[in-house]
Amino acid sequence: MKLHMRDLTKAYHEHPVLNVAEATLGMHGLEGLIGPNGAGKSTLMGLLTRRIAATTGTVELEDGDARHPLNPIRSHQVANLGLVKTNQRIQGFESLTIRDNLRLAATAHANETYRGVLDQNQTNDAIEAEIDDYLSQFTFADPDGFAKSGGEKKLLDILRCLIFKPRMLLMDEPTAGLPDDVTAKVMDMVRAKVKSGEMTVVIVEHDLELIWNYCAYVHFLSEGEILFHGTPDDVKNNRVVAEKYMGV
Amino acid sequence: MSTIVPPQVGSVAASKRRGPTPMWLIRDSIFIGLLEASPLILAAMGFTLIYYLNGFINFAYGESITFGAYFAVLFNVGMGFNFYFSIVPAALLAGALSVATYLFVFKPALNRGVQPSEMIILSVGLSFMLRYGLVLMVGAENVFLSEPPIAFFNFGGLGATNLQLIALILVVIFALNLYWLIYKTGFGEVIRGLANNEELAQVSGINPHQVSVKVWFIAGVAGGLSGIFSGVFALANPLMGWNLILITIMVCIVAGVGSVRGALVASIVAGILTSFITLVSKPLYSEVVLLMTFILILWRRGGRMA
Amino acid sequence: MAYLIFSLSLMLIYIGLAQMLHVQFGLLGIPNFGVVGFWGLGMYAVGVMQVQLGMSFVDAMGLTVVLLVIASYFLGRLILRLERQAILCATIAFSAIIALLAVTEKWMTMGVVGLGTIRHPFRVLGLEEILFFLFLLALIVVMQILILKLHKSRLGRLMVATRDNEELAASLGKDTFQVKIVAFTLTATIMGVLGGLSAPLNQFLTPNMIVPSITFAVWISLVLGGKEHALGAMLGVFVTFGLFDILIETYAPVSPEFAVVVPNMKLFFYGALLVGVLVFRPTGILDRKIKPEDISAALSRGMSTGLAGAGRGMQSFAKVADEKLINRKKEDDQ
């Protein structure tokens, strides 16, 4: 899946924070989006998943031959087209156990009906197997209980998105708050899913090592505009990026 | 459920005498509305102060109103004080009651991190406790203040009593003082600082506890005065505060909760609107219309309270 | 005896209202402070259709359901996107409107004069009250079973998720607004149906029946019993209504002059209880982590050893509850 943006702007109180004339994300499988603090990265992520309303411009989701304009639809409809985002800030369902969190994300909304309340069997074997698989790969202090530390909640946020099986995944600073070994495990899993063609991924990150290691293509955002994009080597050697971001 | 006491004197007769031509109707509405909005103006300003500082809707504020009126009855009828001399101690006691509710109920709950929507439920519980505690002590019957002799004044065909005028003057004085306190003094700045960022305010040496106690006291005094003036216009009963608090909350939310200025304007507008609808239809319909308008305004605004 | 059946029937109505509020507030986080508005609307609608239009109880109830669905759906559309404090105020305003209209629309409701007489739907001589009671009992039991099932269902899980973090649930493809509006329409309509069923109980309707203290009594029951627990509504009504309205008002030997004070004292204690619960144990008696199985296991252990074991059953229930709490404390400490 790919995301096309055209003339996308966002202003708060007439103060512009984002202005993207034209860009496409998701052409190269695993892509990175980098830029200094306040460049508008999180705003862009929010605009793409319809959590924030754009001031002007359009966003379209390309899925094979079909093109879905995202402007007129609501946040849950975006997700159901296959586009999902992990959260920078820790978020979660405090009253649900880790397993119920994953069950919620894995269950199709169409199955959460009133008629379904009467079903004897509320679990789905395929989903349970998948959850067991995830929980065997990632360790939680109490896998049958609740996520406790900030790191566990952050990891659960990412796993919720993965088990949803998106076709395109946006990751907003996935490493913040995660231990290094867990980050590596998550990123290896993401890379494998991208390679197998399950989804395309865009990562927003400050950890440049991670970007250079995993991403096939990198976009550089500064002061609300995408100033440069190219392969990691191109970006590393770009003068603009070096000046504005890496302080060289 | 009569929230704003129906016109007592002169006004209705005056409008009947002339017949409701549009110009007279507007003039009468404004005049009667201003006279009768005084309890509402006071209650709205006090309620807004608490909401602004602590961020939850305090239904128990209605009991400051009720108890204000009952304290006045206590001094005026029970102890035989002159009516005007009963006002001051009654209002101060209402302020003390308000501080007590803060110290013994709301502050512990806020410290425990109770959510805003549950703070409201807590305040409703406290409101019932105080109200029916009062009923258990003094009974549910209406009580009357023994008022000074009533004199009528005539303003171009519109009647008003001395008590209505005194209430209006006191409200104006109190409102101006409160306005000055909030917008022109250091104390007002402190309140605004606390409401916006408690931690920052604390770092800059503000004692939030002291400020809160003062704010709850001022709000309680405003509520008590509101109750006393409602009592002057008609009578006092244990439900009067509960009846007034609903309209007060509506007015404050429509005004944008947290703005004392907005509460002032909106309560005056609500007073005038109520008397206008009362003049053209039945008093109860004016409340139905106000309540429906309230729901629609909330909907239009998308639920942002301020 | 007749009075006891009346009281018990009324208690069942309160349990039903608290159950619906549990779904609205406990599961979905919608603070409906206009319970008495929906209840009153249903009660007056059935009363007006029966008395003024001469319709049968069943026809009147059918038409009332249609009216309630329209009213609660329309109100839901207006308010369910708002933040919680705003929903709370808007629902209070709704119930105040209903109470006022009951007074002003005299051509339908007879105003303060009162509307009557509404007859019981089961016209079996001498057995009307008891049959109606059994019907209500069956209804409440069915609703309780459905709520227990809802708690374990996929839909129930989605409701809790919507309460916890609506935006996050939407980002996972859940149409949270639809979940809320359907559930609100359904539960508010059932509140109205319970009102319609209260009409023949009360037989004679006056506007001063639609008072905020009914909303308040339902809220205190739910919050006291445990707002997030499937059995919280029922337990809460047993403790409040069962204790005060039935045990004390019916059986306690109070002198006539003191009897007048009892209703006021009741509301005073309700208020004090609510304050105490919210400040000291915000989850209510039944914490959400105490599972219904724990209770039934504890109770059946008690039952099996006969009456003498009942006390032990309660002890074991308390022990289970304590263990849960200790475990939870441990969890928190970690």
What does this protein structure show overall?
- The complex is a heterotrimer of chains A (248), B (306) and C (334).
- With 248 residues, chain A is of the alpha/beta class.
- Chain A has nine helices and ten strands.
- In chain A, helix 3 packs parallel to helix 5.
- Chain B is mainly α.
- In chain B, strands 1-2 form a two-stranded antiparallel ribbon.
- Mean pLDDT of chain B is 79; it is low at 1-18.
- With 334 residues, chain C is mainly alpha-helical.
- In chain C, helix 1 packs antiparallel against helix 9 (176-202), helix 11 packs antiparallel against helix 13 (262-280) and helix 14 (292-304) runs antiparallel to helix 15 (306-333).
- Chain C starts with a helix and ends with a helix.
- Chains in contact: A-C, B-C.
Q: Radius of gyration of chain C, rounded?
A: 21 Å
Helical coverage of chain B, percent range: over 70%
Tally of strands of chain C: 0
Mean pLDDT of chain B: 79
Which pair of chains forms the biggest interface, and how many residues does each contribute?
A: B-C, 48 and 46 residues
The CATH class of chain B, by name, is Mainly Alpha
List the secondary-structure elements of chain C in sequence, H or E. Answer: HHHHHHHHHHHHHHH
* Overall body shape of chain C: globular
Q: What distance separates the N and C termini of chain B?
A: 27 Å
Strand content of chain C: under 5%
State the helicity of chain C in percent bands. over 70%
